[in-house]
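Take a look at the protein record below and tell me what you see:
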Amino acid sequence: METLTKKLTVKKENLASVVGSGSLDVLATPAVAALMEGAAAELAQNVLDNDELTTVGTAISIEHTSPTPLGAEVEAEARLVKTEGRLFFFELTARDNAGEIAKGTHTRVSVKAEKFQKKADGKFDEI
């Protein structure tokens, strides 16, 4: 199936000590998850090829197995492994120059962008 890769240079705002997910100056797990999810979102949008539709993430599970320091280059790859109706299923990997740093799975669902945004914006109108 199709793949898409996104790259990131680890900056101060990507560090666990800044994000609040830890005390060390290493790439934060939420930052690596966001990079991998971003690759999947872009790939899903390319597959949809429809301006009225977009996808939203519904599940993500990752193992972040190796630290990456400030200034390092990170590459995340999303591989679309299956579609099932409106659902998109991905395998995710991330690596730095020393090798794999994270892997996992991700699920997205296609939605009508305008309708979904309107629903979200009005979520608290009736409360």
